[in-house]
Amino acid sequence: MRATGTLAQLKPTGTDNTILSSFYFYDAQGQLIGTVDEKKFVTAYLYNQKTNSVTTRQYALATTATVSSTSVWADIIKLPADNTYQDSTKSYDLQGRLIKVVDPRQGTTSYVYDEAGRLIKETLAANTTNERVAYTRYNAFGEVTQVLRGEAANQLTSGMTADQVEQVYNQYAVKSFYDAAGRKTQVMSAAGQLTTFYYDKAGRLTHQINAEGNVVETGYSLFGEVASSTQYSKSLAATATDLATGTTAPSALANAVGVGKNLKGGELTTTFSSLVTAIKDATRDRIEKLEYDKLGKVSKKTDGLSNSIASVYNLYGELEQQTQQVTLGATKTTLQSSYAYSKRGELTSTILDSTGLKNTTLKQYDAYGRVITETDANGNVTRFDYSQDQGRIIQVTSADQGVTKTTYDAWGRQLIVNRNNNLTSYTYNDQAKTLTVKSPEGLQTTTQYNEFGDVVQVTQANQGKSTYLYNDDGQKTKETNAVAATTNYVYDKKTGLLSESTDAVGVKTSYYYDNANRVISQIVTLSATESQETSYSYDGLGQRLEVIEAKGSANERVTQYGYDKAGNLISVTQDAKGLKLLTSYSYDETGRQVKVTDKGLTTVYTYDALGRRISEVKDPGGLALKVEYRYDANGNVTRKIDEAGNSSWYVYNAMNQLVYTINSLGVVSGSVYDLNGKVIAQYQYTALQDVSSWASKDIVTAANVTVSKTTANLSRFVYNKDGLEIYRVDAEGAVTETQYNELGKVAHVLQYDKVLT
Fold first, then answer.
1. Predicted model pTM
2. Structural domain total, the chain
3. Residue 11 clears pLDDT 90, i.e. is over it
């Protein structure tokens, strides 16, 4: 930009110069009464002083009028009668508190406050059969003490006495407790499960303990930043206590279960610290550490195995560089990735392994910050165009010149997706809460939602409908498919966890949980006399340690699992009480498997700097059967060298689609694709490709494949507009036709007795 000149001189000019403008209109009181956005969609704001409400009215169709800074709102709002709109209204009480929101899709949400101005009742989808309510209680300090929500709130009914109401809160509310400093010390679920919290003298959370006694500890830097997180593999015992001698748990915790009933919570004490010290296990506890730069950005992250990633940021807080020490083969290497930005903070380039392979992807933006080109590591370009219909249509042109145009409505929803002249349409009925999708072939699916976005009905063509019911916690309670087969779900009223499901043939599955809400038993009842139980156990980190299938039967099978300090699975022992069939795993610093030993047979894997597997060696101490892989910049396998040293080469097009496969003998097969990515022709070449000069070639291109198609065996494929195969002609000319029903499922397969010549 020039340092001098008038605004008119500084403005860009030219026929390709697109100006996007948004306009704002105000009344005499300075209130916003309307806007016209850059896509020319109109929004009006209506104020009602009598009801103390504001209605946002958004029109479906863009205005065709010319809008400028001199336009008058009264002229703009003269819209055609067919320009429908949606109203969203917010109503306030005399104290300015929001008391009601009316939304065209979510219905009415109402809010009730107590005399102190605290929200005590929230009702979603008010005055409908889907109404969901939440009640909140507070103590004298304004701290939330009890919450009833969804199914729990339904336990309150009209006409209850005060004692009955209290009984409901005691049985079904989630309760929170605080110390004198206002710190939350414990939260108790309706089922009595306690989560306990401890804090340092600065009021920062240091320990969190669930009802199974699993402990997470948080450490801080001198500047109050989270410096470490420790998850202990062992758990506190149910009898663990830091209460003073002779002190009992508060009566409010009388119904508590598991660990926590005898813990105080609040400010960290030496007594509680000693309880944590007693369960420390340096070989299994998971400790993650964080370091920060002067801007407070995370500069180094270290996992439980001391593997770290270092990050460097520019002056604007944007990630500029990341480095990590990794082992590639037998060599310890520093991997570096670099990121570059425009002056507006837009990511313009990403370079992976910037000191080695320099795998680079690029992005370009227009003046409005919209991506206009993306260039992959092979140099293939995808282009984005926003110039059509004021940006209401976005066109994406892929590297193979395939074109997808997407048209959006005023609410940013897809209306039409035109993929290479195959149109998929989307029709919304906000009153009925339905979305109808019509495929290019005319197949139609209508999905109906409730006010919470849950799918309640799916109707497909003439094939009936599937329906779904939900409880007031938003959990699915029943699903019925198009042939009236039903599956039912039952949930625990206090935990909200799935307790039982029954499928269409009457098979019942029951679920049981520990105090941390992890499944510990699953019983499948096949009949009145036959059932199977699977049980699960966990460590203090929540990692599954053991699974017992067909528990208690003659077919009982035990599988045990082991993990490293970063949470990677390092061992699986099948038939742990019998044959003890062990599979072990080893990982590199990035969490990639580098060694697998399965029942005594070892396979070793190596990777390149981009994390791509470049070799695998079976039985490295014996036969040492090695397979190697080579890649292009986009990560496509371009060459495979098998155990005998024979090579196969693979060639791709700009869309990363496999177009040629050539084996070590020069046998070539090829594929041709349409713009929708469908294979329309396959060639099996009868002539052999000369590969004698390819010994050093890790990447070959289509230009290197010189065999002629004239004598190749050709198979052809034809698709309908939905991308379903309708005709196949094999190399002998035999024709197979596939016909589909209204759901797009195969109805008939026809094989013709005559061949195409």
1. 0.92
2. 2
3. no
